[in-house]
C-alpha cells in the first residue's frame, strides 16, 4: 500500500511539474506576442506614426514620410515575422548551420560559395543616399521591434539561442534569397547537356522543343515550333531505361511527401484595360505561386505618407518581411503584380584548365585566367566550424560536377542584382513611368503586368536581363574557350521588351513563353512552363464582358481540366473491351474515368485523380529511368519534366499519339502494353493506400500540407504549427494551380484608384506566432476561394509611435 501511495504521489508530482512547465511555456508564448495597442517612444522619428490593425492583423501605417513609414514597417515585420526574416538572410548567406547545427551544413555548403553576404555588403557601399536612409530606418525599426518583445520569438526559445540583430546587408540578403527560389536551377542546364551529349540533333530537337501547341504569346496568336519530326529511333537510354520501381504510391503526383511540389510550377497575372471595365480603370490580378509554409511568404500592409514634394501616397498590397518596399499591389495610380519569367539568366561555363597549371583556365580571347581559392568559415551550432574552400573566377564561383569544373555566371552575382530600386515603382504616377522603373529594378527578373487609373495596361520584364552576345545559344553549358558565347553584363534597361495597350485590351502571363517574335531572344529559354495555363487564362479573359473586380478575380479559381481532358481520352482509348476483359480493376478504372469526371480538378472528382495518375504513371514508364540517371549525374533530385524542359507533356503526348515503335522502352511489346502498364501502376498505387478506387477523389490526394518549419523538425509541435489538412481543388496546367505545399501565395485583384472594391486572400495569416489570433486568420477563406477586401477592415488595434523627446529626427528620405 505504501508503494502504491508513493507511486500515486510521484505521479501527482510529475503531473504538477508538467502543468507548471506547460503553464510556463504558454506564458512565454504569450510574452513573445507583438504589441498591438498603446503608445511608445521611438528614436529618429520626425513625427508620430500610427499603426492601425484590423481584426486580421493587417497594419495600416500612417507616417509623415517614407523613412518614418519604413521604420514602422520594420517594427511590425520584426514583431510578427522575425524568425522568417532570419531564415531568409541565413539561407541566402549559407549560415543556417549556425542556428540549426550539423543538419543544415549541406545546404550551407550549396549556398555559401555564392558569397552573397560579401556581395550585399559591397552593394551597400554604392547604394544611393536616399535609399540607404530608408533602409537604415527600416533596420532601426526591426531591431527596436525585436527589442520591445517581452520575450524573444518562441523559435529561439526552442532552439535555446538568441536572435542576432538585423543589419542593413541582411535586407539585401532577403532579396537575394529570392534568386535561389526563382532562378537557381543550374541543374536544368546540366540535364540538358547530358541529353545533348547522348542524343542526335534530330532526337534533341524533338525532346527539347522551344515552343508548344499550348503557348499563348502576347505578341501573336501562337508560336511556330515544337513540331520537329519524331526520329525513327530513340536514344539508347530511352530504349534501355527501365522504369523506376514502385515507390508506395508516389507515382501518383500527389501521393507521398513532396511528390507533386517537385513538378508543379505556377504564378499567374493578368490585366484588363479600362476600355473593358465598368470603372474605366485597368484591373490587375495576380496570384504568385510559391512553396507554401507558415507563415506565408508575403506580409500584407498599407503605408500612407507624403513624399519630398508633399504629395500624398497610399501603398497597399504585399511586402516581403526583411525588406522595406511594397512588392505588389497598388499606389492609387498604378497597380501591378509579378510572375516568374523563366528566362535564361545563368550560364554554366566548363573550364578548360591549363595543363601546366590547373589553377588557371583558358578563355576565348587567348588569355589564361586564375581560379582564386578563398576559405569560407561555416559556423556550426554544437560542433566545430567547417572551413569550406571556394573557387572564384572572373566568371563566377566554381562547381565540380563529375570530373568537370564549371563557373556559374549568374545575374544574381551582379553587384546590382538586389537593391531598393524596387521602391521607385512604388510612387510611379503613370504606367509609362512604372514600366521604366520596373526595367531598372534590381530584383530577380520577373514578368510584371501593370495598369493605371486611366485604363492603360502593359507588360515587361522587371529586373536585370543579361546582355548576351549575338550568337549565344541558350540553354546549354559551353566551354570557356568558345568565342561569342554567354553574356557580358546587364542589358540596357531601355532595350527591355514591352507590350503596351494591346488591341485586345488584355494581358496575361503564366510562367510560359511570353513572346513569339525575335524579342524573346532577349529573355531566353530558362525552362518556361507548358503554356496550357496561359492559354486558359487568355481565353477566360477574352470571354469577359464589361468586367468588374469579381469577374477578373474569378479567373484565378478556374479549375477546369481542359489540359487533362486529352489525357483522359487517351486513357479511355487504352481501356478497350478486350483490355478490361478478365481485369475487374481495369473495368472499374474505366467506369470511374467515364462517370467520375466532372471536367474539373474538383475535390470530389475520382475521374480527375485517375486521369492525372495515368499521365504521371505513363511519364514514369517512359522517362523514369532517365530521371534516375540525371539525378545520379547531377547529384540532386532532378526530373526531365522540370530539370530539362517544362514542355515534357507535349513530348509525351506526341509519342502517345504517333506511337513510334522505335521509342518503346525495352520489355514493352507495343504501346498498348505500355499504356496498360501505366493504368495498372495507378491501380497498384491506389491499392497500396488502402483506399477503394471508387472513393479515391482528387481532394483526398490534394490535401493542404502547410506548416511552420518546426512542424517537421519537431513533430510533437505539428498540431500547433500546421494548417488543417483541408481538401483543395486545382492542379497544374490550369489557372488554379494547387498542390499540397505549393500554390497561390496570394490572390489579389485591384483597380488603381478603386482599391475599396479590390479583393484579396492569402494562406495562413499575418503572424508567424501560433499563439496569435492572426496566425491562421486567412486560411479558411483561402482554401474556400472566398475573397476578402483588398484594403484592411475596421480598426481593431492602434499603436502610436511618437518621437523620443530630444531624439534625432530622420531626414525626409523620399
Structure in words:
The chain has an eleven-stranded mixed sheet with strand order 1-31-2-3-7-8-9-10-19-20-24, covered by helices on one side. Strands 25-4-5-28-29-30 form a six-stranded antiparallel sheet. Strand 26 and strand 27 form a beta hairpin. It has a domain at 186-215 and 228-248 and 562-598 and 606-696. The protein has 27 helices and 31 strands. It is globular and about 85 Å long. It has 814 residues and is of the alpha+beta class. The protein is 36% helix and 18% strand.
Largest sheet: 11 strands, mixed
Helix-strand category = alpha+beta
Mean pLDDT: 90
Count of helix runs? 27
Helix content: 25-40%
Secondary structure blueprint with pairings:
Elements: H1 2-31, E1 38-42, E2 49-53, E3 59-62, H2 66-93, H3 97-100, H4 105-111, H5 116-125, H6 129-147, H7 154-159, H8 168-182, H9 186-197, H10 201-207, H11 236-240, E4 268-272, E5 283-287, E6 289-291, E7 299-306, E8 312-319, E9 326-330, E10 334-340, E11 346-350, E12 352-353, E13 360-362, E14 368-370, E15 372-378, E16 386-393, E17 396-401, E18 404-410, H12 423-426, H13 431-440, E19 446-452, E20 457-462, E21 466-468, E22 478-479, E23 487-490, E24 498-500, E25 506-509, H14 520-523, H15 532-542, H16 549-554, H17 562-574, H18 577-580, H19 584-595, H20 606-634, H21 640-644, H22 648-658, H23 671-689, H24 698-701, H25 710-713, H26 718-721, E26 738-739, E27 742-744, E28 747-750, E29 759-761, H27 779-784, E30 788-789, E31 797-803
Parallel strand pairs: 1-31, 3-7, 11-22
Antiparallel strand pairs: 2-3, 2-31, 4-5, 4-25, 5-28, 6-27, 7-8, 8-9, 9-10, 10-19, 11-18, 12-13, 13-14, 15-16, 16-17, 17-18, 19-20, 20-24, 21-23, 26-27, 28-29, 29-30
Helix pairs in contact: 2-6, 2-8, 5-8, 17-20, 19-20, 20-23
Amino acid at each position: 500500500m505504501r508503494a502504491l501511495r508513493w507511486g500515486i504521489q510521484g505521479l501527482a508530482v510529475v503531473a504538477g511539474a508538467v502543468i507548471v512547465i506547460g503553464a510556463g511555456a504558454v506564458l512565454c508564448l504569450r510574452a513573445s506576442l507583438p504589441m498591438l495597442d498603446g503608445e511608445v517612444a521611438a528614436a529618429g522619428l520626425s513625427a508620430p506614426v500610427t499603426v492601425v490593425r484590423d481584426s486580421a492583423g493587417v497594419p495600416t501605417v500612417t507616417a509623415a514620410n517614407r523613412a518614418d513609414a519604413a521604420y514602422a514597417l520594420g517594427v511590425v515585420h520584426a514583431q510578427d515575422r522575425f524568425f522568417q526574416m532570419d531564415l531568409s538572410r541565413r539561407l541566402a548567406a549559407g549560415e543556417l548551420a549556425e542556428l540549426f547545427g550539423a543538419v543544415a551544413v549541406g545546404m550551407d555548403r550549396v549556398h555559401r560559395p555564392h558569397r552573397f553576404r560579401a556581395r550585399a555588403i559591397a552593394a551597400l557601399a554604392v547604394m544611393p543616399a536616399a535609399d540607404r536612409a530608408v533602409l537604415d530606418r527600416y533596420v532601426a525599426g526591426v531591431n527596436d521591434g525585436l527589442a520591445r518583445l517581452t520575450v524573444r520569438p518562441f523559435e529561439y526559445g526552442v532552439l535555446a539561442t538568441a536572435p542576432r540583430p538585423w543589419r542593413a546587408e541582411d535586407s539585401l540578403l532577403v532579396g537575394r534569397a529570392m534568386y535561389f527560389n526563382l532562378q537557381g536551377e543550374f541543374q536544368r542546364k546540366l540535364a540538358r547537356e547530358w541529353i545533348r551529349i547522348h542524343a542526335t540533333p534530330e532526337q534533341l530537337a524533338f525532346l527539347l522543343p522551344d515552343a508548344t501547341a499550348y503557348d499563348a504569346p502576347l505578341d501573336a496568336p501562337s508560336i511556330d515550333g515544337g513540331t520537329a519530326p519524331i526520329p525513327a529511333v530513340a536514344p539508347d537510354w530511352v530504349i534501355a531505361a527501365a522504369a523506376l520501381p514502385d515507390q508506395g504510391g508516389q507515382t501518383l503526383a500527389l501521393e507521398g511527401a513532396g511528390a507533386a511540389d517537385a513538378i508543379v510550377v505556377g504564378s499567374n497575372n493578368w490585366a484588363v484595360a479600362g476600355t473593358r471595365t465598368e470603372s474605366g480603370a485597368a484591373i490587375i490580378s495576380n496570384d504568385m505561386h510559391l512553396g507554401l509554409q507558415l507563415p506565408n511568404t508575403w506580409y500584407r500592409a498599407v503605408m500612407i505618407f507624403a513624399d519630398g514634394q508633399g504629395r500624398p501616397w497610399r501603398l497597399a498590397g504585399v511586402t516581403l518581411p526583411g525588406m522595406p518596399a511594397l512588392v505588389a499591389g497598388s499606389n492609387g495610380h498604378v497597380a501591378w503584380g509579378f510572375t516568374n519569367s523563366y528566362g535564361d539568366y545563368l550560364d554554366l561555363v566548363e573550364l578548360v584548365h591549363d595543363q601546366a597549371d590547373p589553377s588557371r583556365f583558358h578563355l576565348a580571347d587567348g588569355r589564361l585566367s586564375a581560379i582564386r581559392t578563398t576559405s569560407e568559415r561555416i559556423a556550426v551550432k554544437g560542433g566545430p566550424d567547417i572551413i569550406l574552400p571556394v573557387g572564384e573566377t572572373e566568371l563566377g564561383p566554381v562547381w565540380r560536377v563529375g570530373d568537370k569544373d564549371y563557373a556559374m555566371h549568374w545575374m544574381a552575382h551582379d553587384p546590382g542584382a538586389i537593391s531598393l530600386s524596387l521602391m521607385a515603382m512604388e510612387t510611379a504616377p503613370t504606367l509609362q513611368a512604372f514600366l521604366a522603373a520596373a526595367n531598372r529594378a534590381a530584383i530577380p527578373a520577373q514578368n510584371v503586368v501593370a495598369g493605371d487609373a486611366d485604363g492603360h495596361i502593359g507588360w515587361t520584364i522587371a529586373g536585370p536581363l543579361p546582355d548576351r552576345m549575338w550568337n549565344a545559344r541558350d540553354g546549354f553549358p559551353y566551354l570557356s574557350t568558345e568565342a561569342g558565347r554567354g553574356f557580358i553584363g546587364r542589358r540596357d534597361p531601355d532595350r527591355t521588351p514591352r507590350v503596351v495597350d494591346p488591341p485586345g485590351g488584355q494581358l496575361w502571363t503564366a510562367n510560359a513563353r511570353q513572346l513569339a517574335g525575335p524579342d524573346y531572344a532577349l529573355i531566353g529559354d530558362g525552362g518556361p512552363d507548358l503554356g496550357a495555363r496561359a492559354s486558359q487564362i487568355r481565353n477566360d479573359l477574352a470571354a469577359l464582358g464589361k468586367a468588374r473586380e469579381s469577374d477578373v478575380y474569378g479567373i484565378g479559381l478556374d479549375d477546369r481540366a481542359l489540359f487533362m481532358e486529352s489525357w483522359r481520352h487517351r486513357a479511355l482509348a487504352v481501356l478497350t473491351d478486350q483490355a478490361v476483359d478478365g481485369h475487374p480493376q481495369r473495368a472499374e478504372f474505366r467506369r470511374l474515368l467515364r462517370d467520375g469526371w466532372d471536367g474539373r480538378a474538383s475535390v470530389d472528382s475520382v475521374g480527375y485523380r485517375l486521369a492525372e495518375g495515368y499521365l504521371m504513371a505513363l511519364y514514369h514508364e517512359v522517362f523514369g529511368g532517365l530521371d534516375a540517371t540525371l539525378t545520379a549525374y547531377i547529384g540532386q533530385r532532378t526530373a526531365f519534366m522540370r530539370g530539362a524542359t517544362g514542355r515534357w507533356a507535349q513530348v509525351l503526348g506526341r509519342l502517345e499519339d504517333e506511337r513510334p515503335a522505335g521509342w518503346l522502352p525495352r520489355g514493352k511489346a507495343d504501346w498498348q502494353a505500355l499504356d496498360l502498364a501505366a493504368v495498372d501502376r495507378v491501380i497498384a498505387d491506389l491499392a497500396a493506400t488502402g483506399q477503394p478506387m471508387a472513393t479515391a477523389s482528387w481532394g483526398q490526394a490534394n490535401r493542404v500540407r502547410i506548416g511552420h518549419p518546426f512542424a517537421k523538425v519537431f513533430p510533437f509541435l505539428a498540431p500547433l504549427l500546421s494548417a488543417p489538412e483541408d481538401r483543395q481543388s486545382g492542379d497544374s496546367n490550369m489557372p488554379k494551380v494547387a498542390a499540397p505545399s505549393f500554390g497561390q501565395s496570394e490572390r489579389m485583384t485591384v483597380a488603381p484608384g478603386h482599391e475599396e472594391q479590390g479583393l484579396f486572400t492569402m494562406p495562413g495569416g499575418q503572424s508567424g506566432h501560433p499563439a496569435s489570433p492572426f496566425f491562421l486568420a486567412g486560411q479558411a477563406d483561402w482554401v474556400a476561394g472566398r475573397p476578402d477586401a483588398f484594403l484592411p477592415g475596421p480598426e481593431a488595434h492602434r499603436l502610436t509611435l511618437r518621437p523620443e523627446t530630444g531624439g534625432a529626427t530622420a531626414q525626409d528620405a523620399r
